[in-house]
Write a structure and sequence with these properties.
The complex is a heterodimer of chains A (113) and B (111). Chain A is 0% helix and 50% strand. Chain A has no helices and eleven strands. In chain A, strands 2, 4, 5, 6, 9, 10 and 11 form a seven-stranded mixed beta sheet that branches. Helix content of chain B is 0%, strand content 57%. Chain B contains no helices and eleven strands. In chain B, strand 7 and strand 8 form a beta hairpin. Chain B starts with a strand and ends with a strand. The chains are: A mainly beta (113), B mainly beta (111). The interface between A and B is medium-sized, with 27 and 28 residues.
């Protein structure tokens, strides 16, 4: 089944404890992206990647890191999480960079205490 | 950078009526405008999209219109059904650049 998977689905952590949220797609998509969703603000793009080893900042990249060493994986790293990073995170992928359907993962709900 | 506004933030309609959600964008370079539907507890799912070289697109009960001059695009849902109840997001994209989403519209279809 074609899908985007994220792990973990739920995470409660404390300020400053490094964490990684994994994202994987099995559709051989070139474009992958991370979003955060907050009430009243919609989806805001954190980082995106147009292909392996190619990443770029979205609208809200501060406090996040990403890497794209393989085509299928695009992990999101929070090296020193803070409470303002409490949010619902979505990974998405599409075949090409723009003008193409994005497929979203199920989401990761992160709480930083 | 791009800014996308979306109205209304909430919308209630009677089953069978039509629903219209409007979005405006600021960057004239944007050329791809998708609409996503998000059901409770799930990730957004594309329902229709339009590119800047097209003024209107339909898919059964759903249609999208684009006015490039005014920089706005709209989602039209006809003959609404209870399963249309969800949060809808519009977005704007300049091929190869980042996606910018609107804040969302919560649509409730009342039986």
């Amino acid at each position: 089944e074609a899908q985007v998977t994220q792990n973990p689905r739920y995470l409660i952590t404390v300020t400053g404890k490094k964490l990684t949220v994994t994202c994987s797609q099995n559709m051989n998509h070139e474009y992958m992206s991370w979003y955060r969703q907050d009430p009243g603000l919609g989806l805001r793009q954190i980082y995106y990647s147009m292909n392996v080893e190619v990443t770029d900042k979205g609208d809200v990249p501060e406090g996040y890191k990403v890497s794209r060493k393989e085509k299928r994986n695009f992990p999101l790293i929070l090296e020193s999480p803070s409470p303002n990073q409490t949010s619902l995170y979505f990974c998405a992928s599409s075949l090409f960079a723009g003008g193409d359907t994005q497929y979203f993962g199920p989401g990761t709900r992160l709480t930083v205490l | 950078g791009e800014n996308v506004e979306q109205h209304p933030s909430t919308l209630s309609v009677q089953e069978g009526d039509s629903a219209v959600i409007k979005c405006t964008y600021s960057d004239s370079a944007s050329n791809y405008f998708p609409w996503y539907k998000q059901e409770l507890g799930k990730g957004p799912q594309l329902i229709i999209d339009i590119r800047s070289n097209v003024g209107e697109k339909k898919d059964q009960r759903i249609a999208v219109t684009l006015n490039k001059t005014a920089k706005h695009f709209s989602l039209h849902i006809t003959e609404t059904q209870p399963e249309d109840s969800a949060v809808y997001f519009c977005a704007a994209n300049n091929y190869g650049q980042n996606f910018v989403f609107g804040p969302g519209t919560r649509l409730s279809v009342l039986p």
